[in-house]
Amino acid sequence: MDRKPQEHDAIREYCRSHLASIISQGLEPFPACVFDLEVLLNAPVVDLVRVSRVLRSDVQFSHRILHLSNAILKQSNESARTVTEAAVLLGPCLFHTAVVLCAVTEFGARSTRDQNAEALWLHSVQMAIVSEGLAEQAEYPVRGAAYVAGLLHDIGYLPLLVVAREQEKVFRELGAIHWRDNIDLEREIFGFDHCQIGRWMAKSWKFPSSLIDAVLYHHDPRGAGTNSHLAEIVCAAECHCSSSSPEPTKQATRVHRNSSESLRRWNMFAGA
Ligand SMILES: [Fe+2]
Ligand SMILES: [Fe+2]
What global pTM score does this model have? Predict the structure, then answer.
């Protein structure tokens, strides 16, 4: 950061205390309908009437799913008028993926949650698809776990995004800090990096230990111990994704709508 030392200190002080207050408040539990949808969307034949009934039980969350679904469908010039229509157009796996991403972005001010989900979507789904492919090549036994680990590896960015957005408003005259993709700078500014914050989030939501370790160690799998294989897969996917452009991802996402079953083969809340 090219700033005067006192500006640097003020921003750092603000970011650290804001992040500490977020952590001390804890995370909201996932909306109850997420668990019901996981069961329904994993069924061999998806019962759309029941999916629609479950979605109607949480109108606000359903609106968020519809918003994200339409952001995805825009890539292929399609749109859905209802969330059930979105489930049909995306297919059960990609629709479930959108539900999960909306659940982990139920965080911070309500007005910014859709923005957070969209900010994370493209890289997250690219990582999920690539991690799944690498898991298959590496004969990792649970491809669905690799898919979810790729999808959720960067959830720790979300609290940092919330804090950084506020920092921008409060210190308008100083401009934004450019901390993305720089773990050392994240630690310096926020006191924690996105891997450490991701681990806190994953533990709060009681994700399986292999997933927690993949989130914590996805930039350096050497620390993951017995769970290092999954972290290694996500780390390799990250290397691949950082060297490729988003355009192939958009194509991959379209193919994925019809082909991938991974998320349906792994219950992410099973505690396995
Ligand atoms: Fe990361
Ligand atoms: Fe990443």
Answer: 0.87
